[in-house]
């Protein structure tokens, strides 16, 4: 066919043709690799695929808008997706092939939506295609962004009037939507093979209707699928593609949960263990490789076992370290599993009396370790409900390594195993009723996690995927900067703000950049400094979008930076502003986003470039180096599978620590237990549950923990000398248990006989477990006489460990000092000496300010007040219930007087 006739052949005037089966326009699925065009035109599906008897051809495709002659023109079928930006709308894409400047003005586009489908007819100058041969791989082209995660379609037309028997198809691409941590739809391609011996004469098109095939053409579903899977099997081979498992392998009612035809290589490798067995499973795979799908397969496995009948007699628990992750899963799974009859509920707040009642009709629960810990500490009072949990899913299981929160996660999982063992003993059943699935992106010693989650009768299986399974290849760069010996970390962090613009210019390739900072102040300062050094506005349209978003923001500092294409995100922002930044960044309209390091475990905001600005963060009043796990989590955000084949992570650190991070990136950190640092609180909780009744049972409980596994392999980390055998290590563990039990007895939290064979909980110990109070706080209670003044009680309350997460920030001191002492304003009732300089003084000041109804405009301080009062409520309830003497009356009288 003549090149100049190719477009007319597809979009010709059909008014002169007879309506017959020989004139039907059919779409045949024949995947191929499209060469990326740079200019596109759009015509509506209604104009291209139906009779145009009432519409002149000139209104469909104007001659002046028709593309230049090219043998490689092809239509592009695209389902709408806000992230798959056309390149002429992409603020980061400024050049085409060979670095040539693209002329967006010459791109003539017109479109009309029809049934949520848009057809784009690609055009490209002939000389350009000579520079981009068809044999060139898609992932080698710098402009592949629009084509990643797509499936191609070829369009044929059978028309005797045109007198052609050519089998050369028009090539097109179908793009589908993407989701966080889901397997991205891969690019499958093959040659346009045809067979003239196929007896079938019809096929099912993309809309599910049977359409006749051209005579002599066969349905391409018989043709082997693609040889290339974008970002997972570079270069693709038939061996690789044969390893992929189709979604069609699932029963029909569950296929709509997944918006892709094949599971990726990670999911395919794990599918048999997750979907066809009840074995506990641990998976370590890179960020963005679709680990969340494994949880969904485990849920499907449970539903299949129940025959598809959904009742309220079973529970599935999803546990994640961040409330943001729970909210994300809640929104996603409610849409996916709701049509199947499953009820979902997010349970992340502090303990409420009606939590158990609300869970009666719920099937899937999203929760945090702390919340589920408080729930399961009373599981024997609600035994039937807890025993309904059939599937326990742990996201980001590497949190075990966290010194403050890891112990809670470990205790919760060990407790669920205890519940399972108790059920097995009571029912005399051989098969366990609880299955545990755990995933993470950073697990070096995954075999230890598997050993912990498994049992003697049924060991857990584990799968560890290296970086070769990353959807996007990651380049890691460490930059060292000089720092004066007497310079503080604050000043060093401040100096890095002036280096950010150069790093972005060097490594971003004009694509989205995510900058992690240690503190909220560092986040704001970094964004404010960057907008002075560089502007990230592409065109007038982009500027208008930023202006529109900025007008809706409540934070004035954020509004100022967003106008220049730079935003910031931290917990101190209003929820509306945070959501706006997330949406703007995900849509591609915010080139640079500064965020605190906690975002690495929260909402997924993937970027082409990730920068870690300084490797020290502020913890408990001092600067500490990030743990290796934290660094890996942050750099794991680099890479946008739907756009990129490669990504870059840059670590900005001191010159003297540069070598450390270069070495560390080539190795990995072992996950260790932190249970020994909080053992006394968890021992008391198990005693209250009657899990532990004497010292021998306490040692048996220790054997069910991750601590036991790691202390056997790495005793030095836990303060034990090396070279000890198993009996010697267990003896040390027994001594540790005895020491903690003695401390509990001294504060009258437990009762024991002289031989430590009988251990019972006291009422005070039960209150400690019920309200999740720290041992040091309970110890302070014993020093109360009931004669303390209100200000003395405030000082005591403010020093409780329950407020250890409340940090004093530099930019808050002026507001707090004004609340404490100011001649021209109403201040707190009991002002403190000097200036506010400790976390305890901040807690004291905010408690009094709230009771005194003093106005506080700082949103971050308002958040801290909410956090303080949630914890204070637990502490006060425990205090008031733990005294059965006249001191209680005094405390109540003092509290009442203070409240008035």
Automatic annotation (TrEMBL):
Q: Which SUPFAM superfamilies match?
A: P-loop containing nucleoside triphosphate hydrolases (SSF52540), Sec63 N-terminal domain-like (SSF158702), Winged helix' DNA-binding domain (SSF46785)
Reactions it catalyzes: ATP + H2O = ADP + phosphate + H(+); Couples ATP hydrolysis with the unwinding of duplex DNA by translocating in the 3'-5' direction
**UniProt region (Disordered), positions on chain:** 54-75, 125-149, 194-224
UniProt keyword annotations, A-Z = ATP-binding, Helicase, Hydrolase, Isomerase, Meiosis, Metal-binding, Nucleotide-binding, Zinc, Zinc-finger
Gene Ontology molecular function: any one:
3'-5' DNA helicase activity
What's the cofactor?
A: Zn(2+)
GO BP term, example: reciprocal meiotic recombination
Q: Where is the composition biased (Polar residues)?
A: 125-138
A Pfam match: WHD_SNRNP200
- Per the record, the domain of life is Eukaryota
Task: Quote the EC number.
Answer: 5.6.2.4
Q: Which family does it belong to?
A: Belongs to the helicase family. SKI2 subfamily.
Q: Mind telling me what this protein is named?
A: DNA 3'-5' helicase
What is the species of this protein? Owenia fusiformis
């Amino acid at each position: 066919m003549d090149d100049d006739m190719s477009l007319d052949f597809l979009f010709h005037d059909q008014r002169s043709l007879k309506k017959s089966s020989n004139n039907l326009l059919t779409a045949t699925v024949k995947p191929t690799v499209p060469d990326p065009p740079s200019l596109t035109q759009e015509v509506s599906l209604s104009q291209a695929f139906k009779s145009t008897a009432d519409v002149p051809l000139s209104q469909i495709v104007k001659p002046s808008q028709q593309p230049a002659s090219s043998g490689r023109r092809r239509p592009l079928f695209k389902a709408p997706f806000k992230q798959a930006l056309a390149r002429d709308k992409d603020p980061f894409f400024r050049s085409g092939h060979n670095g040539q400047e693209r002329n967006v003005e010459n791109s003539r586009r017109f479109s009309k939506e029809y049934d949520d489908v848009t057809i784009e007819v690609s055009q490209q100058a002939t000389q350009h295609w000579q520079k981009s041969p068809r044999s060139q791989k898609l992932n080698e082209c710098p402009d592949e962004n629009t084509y990643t995660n797509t499936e191609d379609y070829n369009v044929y037309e059978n028309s005797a009037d045109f007198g052609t028997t050519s089998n050369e198809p028009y090539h097109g691409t179908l793009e589908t939507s993407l989701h966080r941590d889901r397997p991205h739809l891969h690019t499958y391609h093959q040659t346009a093979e045809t067979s003239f011996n196929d007896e079938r004469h019809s096929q099912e098109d993309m809309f599910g209707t049977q359409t006749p095939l051209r005579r002599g053409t066969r349905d391409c579903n018989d043709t082997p699928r693609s040889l290339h899977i974008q970002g997972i099997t570079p270069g693709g081979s038939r061996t690789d593609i044969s390893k992929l498992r189709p979604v069609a392998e699932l029963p029909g009612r569950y296929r709509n949960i997944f918006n892709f035809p094949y599971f990726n290589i990670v999911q395919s490798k794990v599918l048999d263990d997750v979907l066809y067995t009840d074995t506990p499973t641990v998976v370590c795979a890179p960020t963005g490789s679709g680990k969340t799908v494994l949880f969904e397969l485990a849920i499907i496995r449970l539903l299949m076992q129940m025959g598809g009948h959904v009742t309220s007699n079973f529970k599935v628990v999803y546990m994640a370290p961040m409330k943001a992750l729970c909210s994300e899963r809640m929104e996603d799974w409610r849409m996916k599993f709701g049509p199947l009859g499953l009820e979902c509920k997010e349970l992340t707040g502090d303990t409420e009396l009606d939590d158990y009642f609300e869970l009666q009709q719920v099937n899937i629960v999203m929760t945090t370790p702390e919340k589920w810990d408080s729930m399961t500490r009373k599981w024997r009072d609600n035994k039937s409900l807890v025993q309904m949990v059939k599937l326990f899913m742990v996201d980001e299981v590497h949190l075990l390594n966290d010194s403050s929160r890891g112990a809670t996660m470990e205790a919760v999982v060990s407790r669920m195993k205890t519940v399972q063992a108790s059920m097995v003993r009571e029912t005399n059943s051989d098969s366990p009723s609880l299955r545990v699935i755990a995933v993470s992106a950073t697990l070096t010693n995954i075999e230890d996690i598997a050993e912990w989650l498994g049992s003697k009768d049924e060991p857990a299986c584990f799968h560890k995927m290296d970086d070769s399974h990353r959807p996007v290849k990651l380049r890691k760069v460490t930059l060292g900067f000089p720092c004066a010996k007497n310079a503080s970390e604050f000043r060093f962090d401040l100096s890095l703000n002036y280096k950010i613009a150069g790093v972005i210019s060097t490594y971003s390739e004009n694509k989205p950049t995510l900058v992690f900072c240690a503190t909220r102040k560092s986040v704001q300062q970094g964004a404010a400094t960057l907008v002075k050094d560089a502007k990230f506005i592409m065109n007038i349209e982009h500027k208008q979008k930023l202006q529109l978003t900025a007008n809706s923001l409540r934070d004035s500092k954020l509004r100022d930076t967003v106008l220049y294409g730079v935003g910031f995100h931290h917990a101190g922002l209003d929820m509306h502003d945070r959501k706006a930044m997330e949406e703007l960044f995900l849509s591609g309209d915010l080139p640079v986003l500064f965020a605190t390091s906690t975002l690495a475990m929260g909402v997924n905001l993937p970027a082409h470039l990730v920068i870690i600005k300084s490797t020290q963060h502020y913890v408990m009043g001092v600067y500490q180096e990030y743990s290796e796990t934290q660094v890996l989590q942050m750099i794991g955000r680099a890479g946008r599978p739907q756009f990129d084949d490669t990504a870059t992570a840059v670590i900005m650190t001191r010159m003297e620590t540069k070598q450390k991070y270069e070495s560390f990136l080539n190795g990995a950190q072992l996950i260790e237990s932190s249970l020994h640092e909080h053992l006394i609180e968890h021992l008391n909780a198990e005693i209250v549950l009657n899990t532990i009744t004497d010292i021998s049972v306490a040692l048996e409980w220790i054997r069910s923990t991750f601590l036991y596994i790691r202390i056997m392999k790495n005793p030095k980390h836990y303060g034990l000398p090396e070279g000890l055998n198993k009996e010697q290590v267990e003896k040390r563990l027994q001594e540790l248990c005895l020491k903690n039990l003695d401390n509990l007895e001294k504060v009258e939290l437990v009762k024991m006989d002289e031989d430590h064979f009988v251990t019972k909980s006291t009422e005070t110990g039960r209150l400690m477990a019920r309200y999740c109070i720290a041992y040091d706080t309970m110890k302070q209670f014993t020093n109360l006489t009931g004669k303390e003044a209100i200000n003395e009680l405030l000082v005591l309350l403010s020093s409780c460990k329950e407020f250890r997460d409340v940090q004093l920030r530099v930019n808050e001191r002026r507001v707090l000092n004004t609340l404490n002492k100011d001649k021209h304003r109403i201040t707190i009732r009991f002002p403190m000496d000097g200036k506010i300089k400790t976390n305890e003084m901040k807690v004291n000041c905010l408690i009094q300010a709230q009771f005194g109804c003093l106005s506080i405009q700082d949103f971050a301080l308002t958040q801290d007040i909410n956090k303080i009062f949630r914890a204070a409520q637990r502490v006060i309830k425990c205090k008031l219930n733990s005294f059965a003497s006249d001191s209680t009356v005094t405390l109540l009288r003092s509290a009442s007087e203070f409240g008035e």
